[in-house]
Structure formats: C-alpha cells, structure tokens
Amino acid sequence: MSAALASTAVRTAQKACKHWPHKSPALTKVLDNRSAFKLDPKHEQPMGTWTSEEIRDAVDEHVMLTWAPGKARHNVPIITHGEGVYVFDDKGKKYLDWTSQAVCSNIGYTVPDNVVEGTVRQMKKLPFIYGGLGITEVRARLASLVSDILPGDLTGMVFPSSGSEANEAAIMCARRYTGKFKVINWYRSYHGGTTNSQQATGDFRRWFGGDNVPGFVKAFAPYPLFWDYAGDNEAERTQMALNMLEEQILNEGPDTIALIQFESVIGGGGVIMPPPGYMQGVRAMCDKYDILMHCDEVMVGFGRTGKLFGFQNYEGVIPDIVTAAKGITSAILPLSMMACRKHIMDGFEDKPLGWGSTYQAHPVAMACAYENLKYMIKEDILGHVQELEPVFEDCMRTLTETHPSIKQYRHVGMFGCFDAHLPNGENPQLQHTAVHEAFVKYRMAYTENGLIGLLRAPHLHVAPPLTITKDELLDGFDRQDRALYVLDEGLGYQEMRGVCL
C-alpha cells in the first residue's frame, strides 16, 4: 500500500469514528459513591449482640417482604435460635413450628453433625465452581444418590437454587425437547415467583406478574372449589374430570402442548390429592398425545407424604420430569433439583438445555443436600412419618368433629389441612381477599398458644417437621385446639368444648 493510500485510509477511519456532540441531562442529585466508606463499628459486634431495638430499627429502614404487605414486617417476631421442632424469639417465647415454616424445615432445627461437617468440609475445600466450568465430586455423588432413590429411569439431574428455578428449568426442558410451547397447569396451584413459574401458577399470585405471559393454559383440578363433577360414583367423576382435561388438550391442539405440569399434591391450595385413577389417566393421556408429564414435588418431595416423592402415592405413575426443593436440604441451604428421564437427557447431548444460573450446582449447597438425604435414609425418617400418620389423622378428625368452624380436613403423611366455613356453609374468604377478622383473632390465639406457621385462610395447614415426636405432635394439636375456639367464636358459632388427647 502506498503512503498516500495509507494516509487516506487512516483519515477515513478517523472520520468514521468521530462522534456527534450531544449534551446529556445533568444529574438532579449528586449521590455519594462512598469511595471512602468506613465500616460502622456496629457491624464489628459479634452476631447475636444487637438489641431488639437495633434489629427493629434496621428492619424498619431497610427490610422488604415478599408475599405480604411491607407493613407486616413490624409484627413479625425476631427469632433468635431453634432447637428440635421449636424456635425461640427475642423475648424468650418458645414456638412449636406447626408448618415447618413454608413446609420446608423437614428435620427441624437441630442440624445433624454429618450435615454440618459435610457442608463445612466442602466450604473449606472448594466453596464454589461454576457448573459449566468444572464438575465436583459432590455433584456426581448427589446426582447418583437422587437417581438411586427415584423410581424408573429418572436419571438426568440439574440442581438450581429454588423451586421456582427448578420449574423454570422444567418448562424450558420440555419446550426445547418437544419443540412445542404450551404448558397446562391446574387452577389453585403454585409453581413459583419467577416469570414462567409464576404464570404457571394457578392461584392469585400469578396476577402480580400481570397474567400476560403466553403459552400457559389452566385446567380445573378433580376437586374444584365451588362445584363438584356430577354424580356420586367416584370412578365416574374421575373419568369426567379426565374427559374435561382431554377436551382441553384437543381444543388447544396436542401438537402445541409441551407439558402437563401438576403439583403431585396441591400444597398451598389446601393439601389436595387427586382421586384414585386420575394421575394414571393423566399419564396415559400424555403418552397418547406425545406430551411430557411433570410432577412438581417442591413442597412434598423427600418424605412429606410418607413416601420419598408425592407421585409415588399414585401406583404405576412415572413422570417424565420431576422437580423438588425445600426437603432436599431440609431448608438448611437453598437448593432444588430437576430430574428427567433418560431419553430426555439424551436429547440434549448435542444442544444446550436453554436454562441456567450462576449458582446452579453450587457445591456447598449440594454437600448439605447430600448429607441431609443420607441422614433421612439412615434414620428412617419415612418410617417415622408412616408410624405417626394414624395419630396425625386421628387428631385432625377429632378437631374437625369438635370445632364447628371446621368444615372438613385432608391429610397424607405429615401434611394436613383444615377448611374453615361460615355457619351458613359459605367460604369465609378467598385467599386473595382481605383477611377476615376471625382469622386475625385466630392468628393471635395461635401465637399466644405457642405455635408458629403459615396461614392461608380459609385453609389451615398442619405440616410439622418430620422428626416430631408423638408427644410433641399431640401437644401441637392441643395448642391448635385451644386456638380454634377463638375461630369458632369469630366465625359466629356457639362455643363448644373438647380436646384432642
């Protein structure tokens, strides 16, 4: 290239990259970038030394809640520690955890030594490796263990951080594998708080996201809230519910449906199990129309129902995809899982799943899960749940017979729910409406009697840690019995007496 030509090329390039002057608006407020930030001495104080007032001040100024209005943070107790199935507040009050918090603290608050030691050992050895850059031994071990305890050929494993993420991975897996887009979910279900999992949700919480994400179709569960399928024969009613689902599939177009995604047991919506034959019918329908079947086990997986997985309550049913969370670590650390069958796993040999996160397959969380699951198996937690299940059911029946405010109950394993009703038989409130004053008073009595747990009125959940003893279980029902007299009165029933002993 001649010198003249080279000079022209340089000048041209320089001209091409010149900018046009443009004045951006000035900041209306100059913010301190804290380049010289110094640590406040209060943050050097050992954990556990802040006063209740200091904690409250920090909460008032900085803490936000999620599923509750922000002002509720002012009344949430300050919990200092836990032991066994109990937690303690800053005033020394002892609470029996009656719902395993969000149905997740499955082995309570005395963490087994093997879980502590295994988690700390991993933290010291390798606190983190991004899942796409390296494979850890604990990842291989946990995948192998979960595959061993899952039935059938559910062998492909992904380990996200939350149930919502696991369901996102399941949706993406199904769409990528099938090349189809639509997902069918039940009304009254809950699948998570991220975009797709929130839209998959059937209850009011999907409204918060605008309820405008395409590709999700809602179906009625076999037990709708306000009406029954016709007839008294359960088998015929089950077939009617399946016919209704099949008609939806046909009208949506089987070639457009990637996934039918149901909770194995509807959890937040009231511990609802499909009738005999229903889930088997769904499995057969998925096979007939080449649709993947997904069982969401986030709440009931790993022992809650007295079986390792909720879908094992439905004989012969093996889903194509299973998700779980909560119980995989007993909520000690955040972790979830998505498992798929071998042919689906093989389908991604030459293409990516299309879902991922920085903390997928976090080694420290996986170490916690690995040791937690080994503890549950070695200590026969499932056998303990099965042994206490008749006691659990007997107490639920007794409280239902004792308190007129309770319409009915349902239970499986260590998972139960009471339904409240008004004297005229009507539902006292829907979950998305303002709380009925009777439930406010009930909540106060519940707390005063030393119980702590979720309230999803008009459903009253019972789901204590799976390690609870018989005496502790009876004591918990006795405390709830006393609180229910307040609900009886609040809903307009004459006071009655009785106790579960």
From TrEMBL:
Q: Name one Pfam family in it.
A: Aminotran_3
- What keywords appear on the UniProt entry? Aminotransferase, Pyridoxal phosphate, Transferase
A GO MF term: pyridoxal phosphate binding
GO CC, sorted alphabetically, is:
cytosol
Which PANTHER family did the record assign? AMINOTRANSFERASE, AMINOTRANSFERASE CLASS-III
Q: Which family does it belong to?
A: Belongs to the class-III pyridoxal-phosphate-dependent aminotransferase family.
Its name, as the record gives it, is Aminotransferase class-III
